[in-house]
Amino acid sequence: MLQILIADDHDIVRRGVRGIIEAHPDWTVCCEAANGDAVLDLARLHRPDIAILDVSLPGLNGITVTRQLRQACPETEVLLFTMHDDNETVSGGLAAGARGYILKNDGDEQLVSAIAALGNHRPYFSAVVSELLLDAALNVRKKSRLESFTVRELEVAQLIAEGESNKRIARKLEISIKTVESHRAAAMRKAGVRTAAEFVRFAIRHNLIQA
Questions:
Q1: Which CATH number does the domain housing residue 179 bear?
Q2: Using CA atoms, how far apart are residues 201 and 115, in angstroms rounded to an integer?
């Protein structure tokens, strides 16, 4: 029986995905999450075969969660199921360790095919994503800025963009303010920005936070 985790902040999306999964006799939903913060604990507890994640999750975004999930539960295949089809987000998601990437407007058949492929440890990408990957193979791909961020820098970056102070970030992540300042400086340097306003625009453009 294929065990599947669903993470999306919209209940209607989770219900729809659950319905598609449970229509298959050999698949079951072992757990659901409405935000990125809950995914890792649920994955460690249930050890799903596949985690279906939205990119724009509240709390930790889907790309950050993918990185952490690949480290904590390497046996779990990650399928990013999202509306975002830009090159930066796709590149960031695949670099984080996702083995599947499909769009929410692809249709039920694509989702079923993606789950079946990942269940057999084979990658699966929507047509749009496949075209992006082909273009990258045929041309010298410009590295996504998100690929250079560490997991901790992504966490700090997201909290900065959400307007959290260094003190609140330090308390939330249980690290020192000096460490937060170091990660903040590194994140802003890698983003190529100098001000908080520029960083917020960068975070929205790269789907670290929702506009």
A1: 1.10.10.10
A2: 34
